[in-house]
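User: Structure tokens for this complex, please. No commentary.
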Amino acid sequence: MFRTLTRRTLTGVAALAATGLVLTGCGGGGNEPAALDTEEQITLNYTFWGNDDRAARYDKAIAAFEEEYPNITINDTFTDYPSYWEKRQTEAAGGGLPDVMQFDYTYLRQYGDNGLLLNLEDYFGNGVTTDAIDETLLATGTLEDGTFAIPTGYSAWSVFQNPGLLADTGVEPYEGGTSWEDYDAYMAAVTEAGGGTVYGGTDTTQRIQDLELKLRQQGRELFTEEGELNFTQEELAEHWTEGQENRDSVTVPQSKLEEINPVSGFGGSITTSEMSWSNFLGGYLGDSGAEEITIVAPPTSNPDEKDLYRKVGLMQAASAQTEHPEAAAAFVDFLINSPEVGEIFGATLGIPASETQLEGANLEGPDQAVKDYLDSIEDRIGDAPAAPVNGFGAIEQTFWDLGKSIGLGAVTPEDAAKQFFDEAAVTLGN
Amino acid sequence: MTTIESNPAVPVPVDPDHRRQSGPRRRPMRRHLPTALWIVGILALTAVVLYPLLWMFSASFKPNAEFGSNQGLLPENPTFDNFVKVMQGIAGIPTWKFFLNSLILAIGAVIGTVISSSMAAYAFSRITFKGSKILFAAMIGTLLLPFHVLIIPQYIIFRNLGLIDTFWPLLAGKFLATEAFFVFLMVQFIRNLPRELDEAARIDGCGHGRIFLSITLPLIKPALITSSIFAFIWSWNDFLGPLLYLNSPDKYPLPLALNIFNDQTSTSDYGATIAISVLALLPVMLFFIIFQRFLVDGVATQGLKG
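Assistant:
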């Protein structure tokens, strides 16, 4: 029918239009910010992505904010993640971005470099308190021209295990932080004991984070400072080839994973372990229905190298076009620092980045487990990579899709590496 | 649908004792065999086509944790919890509100489309005015314009009019005959009506308004019904329009509400998503069942002249 629209096409078109904004040069002015007027009636639009549970929490947080600032009213709206960015792209191009937005690190450069976001640095110490936030975390929101977003929380790459499922196979859990050989041996043992229904893990070369981890263990990064790929096509082919042995006989077959998509192998209780970001714990608990899930450090080939980093997930940002920047800054500050907000959200937006919020959060159960894990890997945490290049989201997805195709046997690692470099060249604009 | 009736001209074997007799008696069997094979084949195809729907219905009784482990048709631990959760509403908004919003938009779209498109179609097919050919070509041209091209300019217009977060951006176009597809459909229909009817009415003293109301409208009823059904279903299923123009969750229609239970970045309630999908399908199915006989009529009479 005429009306059948693919959302992907739309994103493309909208992205193009957003790029157009750079050409027309929409930049914010650098005037001295005024103090917040406590008399004037102000209405702010706020938007976030998430599910009904997150919406209920935001409702409470907004109520608390409105109580503290009686002259400010917050209108909130929310959708799911993919629609969220479609809508933002259109609004960015049409000049109608909401005053304050829940933001994603992946999109920071795209919006920040285009002058669409409010430079929050102007409000540091004058509406926005940053004392309680770790400097390296705060720096993640910084681009060349200023600080455009502040992280609510962070996570780190980790290995999840399902002890209940593991007990059925009789294999000892992987202790974490040891060599890749140990982890491979663990996965092989589980797969052997699982008899074709339970597997030890998922392909450990499939995602771009797997390659990143490997590179960081050699003291390298995914991207150069100029924002170009920091590895060669041959290295990528080799990376994927290294996983071949495991794919053939150890890790869960990709065809099985496709069957249960969008639930992952670990979420669907067919693997006893999986590597992912530590904030996925809550989602895994819900998907698998498991009573307990443990979390340990990923394997390493070089224990002395600081290969892990604090990954910023959710951030809060304000629009450069907002009519009430000081009110927007006040709301961002409240969402980042308020202990009350910490209590409302717990660790559902990541382990709180701000100390004051962390104190209010009263972490317990799985949230505390994530926090304990993050504390336990302190020694391995190094500097976070620079803000993702423009188009990182697409590159990350291409990498994963190709990794899956290799798992399905549809493409060889060499061809996949070539395809990845071709597509990355287009995305990165070389 | 028409039922398959046995052809009275073909003798039906009645007495089983006669079955062994050879000769002409076997001919009916031979004729029925292909029919039976066709029916079996069609049933098998229908089953394949309907399986996803059946799976969805059955999966709405699965507890959320079963979605990863059990891809089969039947739930292992059937539960009504998904429906209970869905009926409790989303983020403080009662579920019926989403149905109501969808219904307002769909009915508004139907009314707008029928009124404006039929009037535009009458003008294009019966009145010769300056530039009517060029305008008609331009209208057909909009059919070739992908919606994506218009999104941003449209958004800017409605934003400057201050109509964001109201139903107007979604309905205004419908009342202004912007759906070229419907206008074209009706134009073709009206062109097939004999002009003599109009002329007779004119002799009786009717102007364009009266001819349109009393002669044309009753005769293009099948086209109106076809348009209504499509307008209803398109509006009911529209996702992008409401996504861009509506901000307050209490104005969301169903397609947006369906997504709320899903959040790939934290937890997703697949059970609730499927349950509300089932509920969202019911009205549109009901609508289709009630109007499908008109739809078939409409399509069948489109080729009829006079």
